[in-house]
Amino acid sequence: QVQLQESGPGLVKPSDTLSLTCAVSGASVSRDKWWSWVRQSPGKGLEWIGEICHCGITNYNPSLKSRVTISLDKSKNQFSLRLTSMTAADTATYYCTRDGDRGYSLAFWGQGTLVTVSS
Amino acid sequence: ENVLTQSPGTLSLSPGERATLSCRASQSVNSDYLAWYQQKPGQAPRLLIYGASNRATDIPDRFSGGGSATDFTLTISRLEPEDFAVYYCQLYGSSPPMYTFGRGTKLEIK
Q1: For a tag on chain A, would you pick the N or C end, based on fewer CB atoms within 10 A?
Q2: Is the CB of B44 less than 8 angstroms away from the CB of A46?
């Protein structure tokens, strides 16, 4: 069974860069599929941040593209999110996900990690 | 950008009743790219339906999806107590490649 686990700081300061990692078990980030990050502000809906394929190609939400980098670490079987210039509006629960066998949907989700932006 | 509009915002029903949730796209979409999720408080979303009408693994058959072009529905044939949650529809677009979510429908106990 595919399992995803996010890790990273729970608190970042305004203007800082957020770095999160998603550890993957039960699947290989270097074999196939697309790996995404999704966030959810407190009490709000879901916002897709971006994705990376096993091949290294990335797609980003145009609204965040200038601040986002998603990368793979094949040796550790994990992928990462880097989001620069953090503001209070970036306070959210961040989820790592993987698409399903038929693609175009997010079949596997981590439990999520809450990131608060505050000085 | 294709915008997804979900209705109603909140749906109040009783266990045993039938629930019909709507998701409307601002432009016609490929049904293969439309999915539905369930989210309970404090939990990650769970994929229910992919390709507009295909149940994901381990999803009970009381959940069904349908629709085409711009209008899609999620139907729960007979509500169980554990079905009261927030439901999101999702579209994968190709220009640019990205996922878009609706704002959600909260299904609450009447």
Answers
A1: N
A2: no
Q: Rounded to whole angstroms, how far apart are CA atoms A88 and A119?
A: 10
Q: To the nearest 10°, the Cα dihedral for A88, A86, A79, A33?
A: 70
First to last CA, chain B: 36
Counting as low any pLDDT under 70, the low residues of chain A are: none
By Cβ distance, the residue of A36, A104, A109 closest to B45 is A109
Q: A67-83: per-residue pLDDT in tens?
A: 999 999 999 999 999 99
B96, A103: Cβ pair inside 8 Å?
A: no
Class of residue B73 by CB neighbours under 10 A (exposed 0-12, middle 13-18, buried 19+) = middle
> Which candidate from A36, A46, A100 shows the least CB-CB separation from B50?
A100
> Can you tell me the distance from the alpha carbon of B103 to that of A72, in angstroms, rounded to the nearest whole number?
30
Q: Which two tokens stand for residue B85?
A: 């949650």
CB pairs under 8 A between A and B: 67
On whether the CB atoms of residues A27 and A14 are closer than 8 A, the answer is: no
